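To: structure desk
From: M.T.
Subject: fold request, one chain
Message: Could you run this one when you get a chance? Sequence is below, nothing fancy, just the single chain.
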Amino acid sequence: MPVIVTLVAGADGSTSKNGNSAGVTTAIDRTEFLARRRSADCIIIGGNTARTEPYQRTPVPVVVLSRSLVNPLPHNRLAHCWNLSPIEALTKAIKTFGPTVHIEAGASIIEELMKAGKIDQLELSITSVTDGDDKINIEKLLSYFTAFEEAEREGTRFISARR
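Reply: Done. Structure tokens follow.
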């Protein structure tokens, strides 16, 4: 069952700039991200991600983890809002939609799933952007994995990591 975190970060670990990930991404990263996403059975995101990123249309079901009773994606007919922990939501998502789950959430959800050993793969894109927000520790993130493939295309570094 491949549970995959897909994440873009600037060279300093910034995962957003000017309010969302568009500030740290590149055209090649966006192209590869969208291609990978189509292979998922579902996507899991947090409420903040749902409110700041373009999830109004998704090719597969998207699960929003939120304590709010207000659906942040009212126009996405594939959106589901669940008030569950990340681990509970992942278990339910696999049972409901299938085994290939993409985690496109923020650092706290990713960290919780990593610590619990629930992530099989990381697809990390690193761009040259700096001075953004919501920084992650890239080295710590990579420390959860043992096998790595790395490539650089059009100024973006791509790391595929597996346990």
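Reply (cont.): The chain has one domain: 3-162. Let me know if you need anything else for the meeting.
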